[in-house]
Amino acid sequence: MSTHAKRERLLLADLLESAGPEAPTLCENWTTRDLAAHLVVRERRADAAGGLLVKPLAGRLRRVQAEFAAKPYGELIHLIRTGPPRLSPFALKPVDEASNTVEFYVHAEDVRRARPEWTPREVDPVFADALWTRIERMARVLGRTSPVGLVLRRPDGRTAVAHRGTPVVTVVGEPGELTMFAFGRQEAADVQLDGDKEAVDRLLAAKLGI
Question: Which residues contact 56 (CB under 8 A, 6 or more apart)?
């Protein structure tokens, strides 16, 4: 049975391929080539990928990622599509599912939503629940830099507190849209914001996510 992570991997690879190497993304100033290089380094160069979380290693990460970005774009797409080496932790199905489901979903939407004609993606209920489970577990980490109290709420009323404080802004949306919002793509998320205007403005300008 295909996992969520595997399905999102293939979708992301297809989106990157069809967009071409110089298309914009929602990842700051990254092009699709930069994003593709990031994905490959994350799975295949553990010696450099630590720079994603450890600041002293960030310089090495930038150098290695630049080296991969210089490779033929088709090669990068192939490496993403075929997945990590056999001995990589990411090659283990439980690790792949836990680490890549949200990663690939968000980056696929980074490519889709950088286009002016994008529309919200329809997410099936099982995948929506999988995204919600991860958001519930990660909410406090994703919302730790929020300048206001932050509550994430599904239309059915299920709620996750991402940051305690006042005033409070409640973000209401489907799990996929809440995922995009919580990962710092506030302006590109199809959600409703319930709170006073100043608090909402501060939240929209904040840098959320990991």
Answer: none
Q: Which architecture does CATH list for 125-205? A: 2-Layer Sandwich (3.30)
Query: Contact, 207 vs 180, CB < 8 A?
Result: no
What integer pLDDT is reported at residue 1 of this predicted model?
40
- Residues near 18 by beta carbon (within 8 Å), at least 6 away in sequence: none
User: Which tokens go with 158?
Assistant: 């299920």
In Å, what is the CA distance from 178 to each residue of 7, 40, 72, 98, 164? 20, 26, 34, 18, 17
Whether 179 has a pLDDT exceeding 80, the answer reads yes
* Cα–Cα distance measured from residue 144 to residue 146, given in angstroms and rounded to the nearest whole number: 6
Which is nearest to 200 in space by CA: 210, 189, 29?
Answer: 189
Q: With cut-offs at 50, 70 and 90, classify the pLDDT of residue 38.
A: very high
Residue 162 to residue 28: CA distance in whole angstroms: 23
Closest alpha carbon to 80 in 38, 18, 30, 31: 38
Span(s) in the chain for CATH 3.30.1050.20 = 125-205
pTM for the whole thing?
0.91
> In a 3-state reduction of DSSP, which class is residue 66?
helix
